[in-house]
Amino acid sequence: MNQPYYIKSSCSIKNSQVSLNGSIVFKNETDSFSEFIKAAYKQQNTNYPKFFKMDNLSKLAFLTADILLKNENLNPEETNDIAMVFSNKASSLDTDRKHQDSIQNKENYYPSPAIFVYTLPNICIGEISIKYKLYSENSFFIFNGFNASHLCSYTKSLISSNKATQVLCGWVEFDDEDNYEAFIYLVAKEGTIKHSEEDILTLYNS
Description:
The chain has a single domain (6-205), classed as 3-Layer(aba) Sandwich (Peroxisomal Thiolase, Chain A, domain 1), CATH 3.40.47.10. By secondary structure, the protein is an alpha+beta fold. The protein has helices at residues 33-43, 56-71, 93-104, 113-116, 123-132, 148-160, 197-205, and strands at 6-14, 17-20, 23-27, 82-88, 138-142, 166-176, 179-188, 193-194. The longest helix is centred in the N-terminal third of the chain and has 16 residues, at 56-71. Strands 1, 2, 3, 4, 5, 6, 7 and 8 form an 8-stranded mixed β-sheet that branches.
């Protein structure tokens, strides 16, 4: 008999609002992602100075995960056996553009190491891992769209093979200031919402 797995909690950021387990916990109507994410960081009492040095994709992923994990009362001082499986469509395109602009600027040519370090999408996983000491498996996949089937099957494989006791899954997309969204959820052996493709899609689209 296959062991069922469950979605313990979920958090999303899109359309200038933050939702935790289906309830809006912060909303700030603004045209600027930069202004919105700073306001959300402050309102959620996130204490992580390095946040302001991150690129936009990492800020989006980090804050979404931080809100969810704080709600789970996860102790950041202890090593936590949680794997991460993230994905998106644009990879690190927003940061890649900024890096390319710095290379093409003939009058002020100097590629910034602070920008270059974020030209891989999986760097956002590292930022979350550092704060919450998540040293288990982690992967970042690129798909044409949200892939519930992959998240479901890959997560099942990680837990059933004892590579992790829980898995933080998600879709974290940042293309530009007007095109961003994050949907992150935590999977475990116990919970109320079954971790199935149908239920994942229902949460994602809600």
